[in-house]
Design brief:
199 residues, two-stranded antiparallel sheet, Dna Topoisomerase Vi A Subunit, Chain: A, domain 2, binds zinc ion, 5-stranded mixed beta sheet, 7 strands, alpha/beta, 2 domains
């Protein structure tokens, strides 16, 4: 149906999340119609992002610099941390402009069915970081799904051992069970942060 290079482009685009066969075809036909300079800019942006953006060695945020901007900022409260599952959740919280502390990105949630346990996530790094830096409060900004609940409680048990006085809280969600943090609007998320309660 397609000439070989076009078929390959469609195939690659279809690997992207949320891109079905029809969208991939539409994107490919759109791209092939654009000037070569535009395509080069896109290809370069992809490569540059891939080559320069790494995990922050402290909080596991994506950053072209290590430590990331948030970990380096003297403006941020070093004793108030927010634990999130993914970088997209950190971005959602930053959008509220309400949180002035630091982060720790887990890289996912515990999910035995998908082979994701403590060692597949940045949990041991969090425990070591808490033991060393001794923050005042740790907010779990994690969606209240089954996996989210398990993850929060496993981490809580680990942290109780290294820092018995650590105050641990969770977002007060005005959201349905299992709803994703990233889809919450800024006002709802800011309120959930403000009204956080002890875990
Ligand atoms: Zn960082």
């Amino acid at each position: 149906m397609y000439t070989r290079p076009l078929a390959r482009l469609i195939e690659e685009l279809q690997r992207l999340p949320g891109i079905g066969a029809k969208t991939a075809q539409r994107l490919a036909l759109h791209l092939i119609n654009r000037p070569v300079t535009e395509i080069e800019a896109l290809a370069q942006a992809l490569l540059e992002a891939k080559q320069t953006v790494k995990h922050c060695s402290i909080c596991f945020n994506w950053s072209a610099e290590d430590p990331c901007e948030i970990c380096r900022s003297p403006q941020r409260d070093p004793s108030l941390w927010c634990v999130v599952a993914e970088v997209k959740d950190l971005i959602a919280l930053e959008r509220t402009r309400e949180f002035k502390g630091r982060y720790h990105v887990l890289g996912g949630l515990i999910s035995p069915m998908n082979g994701i346990g403590v060692d597949q996530l940045h949990i041991r790094e969090l425990v070591a970081r808490v033991a060393q830096e001794k923050p005042r409060e740790l907010i779990f900004a994690i969606s209240p799904s089954v996996e989210g609940e398990v993850t929060m409680h496993v981490i809580k048990d680990f942290l109780k051992q290294v820092s018995p006085t650590l105050y641990m809280t969770r977002l007060a969600f005005g959201l349905p069970m299992g709803s994703e943090l990233e889809y919450a609007d800024e006002v709802t998320l800011a309120r959930a942060l403000e009204a956080r309660r002890e875990l």
